[in-house]
């Protein structure tokens, strides 16, 4: 079922909601410049969660997918995520868990909507990342960022009708200015960190291993053997681990 969720700042978010038999629901947070389908990985995971008895809500962050235009920043995504969670609660789903991927993990870990009881984050950012932006964006885009503070990035998501997304200098700073102690020290719900085996060659896993002790609640880190960063080739294992984590940390009557 296609739904529209309006944020406090008046931005309309496009989502896909599928009801469940009880009060439990999974809310998804997609990665950088992706959309609610997350290259189909969220569609596959949502189906597995519904089979296990959860309702699911996949939505496009503002400035992505079919949602309204906006600059893609963690600050905006936090408001989007909280708005989506509040909408779920209004539909009768107060027992929510969150599945976030990559850049979406920052909004998840920082935003932590009030109704979220547990989280699974795949390929999560847990500390400052310094990417070679000059190898990722064109000289023209970097010049535009320097001169105007924003630039447009073509949307290459499958089946997307969006022409481009807009990023800003703040977007790039969202990657490089992560304070690990502040980020992980304020986590209030149990969180499972999942990484692909390929992530072990990057700083993502190194920083997560160093920072997991900062999480003041239940936390675990798992490496999914044979998986890439996107996990798309091992989603069966991701779903199994996530469902076990949610079952362990949701109240029995939720």
UniProtKB/TrEMBL annotation:
- According to its UniProt entry, this protein's organism is Georgenia ruanii
**Domain AB hydrolase-1: where?**
26-230
Does Hydrolase appear among the keywords?
A: yes
Pfam families named among the record's database cross-references: Abhydrolase_6 (PF12697)
Designated name of the protein: Alpha/beta fold hydrolase
- Give TM regions: none
Is the keyword Hydrolase assigned to this protein? yes
Judging by the UniProt lineage, the source's domain of life is Bacteria
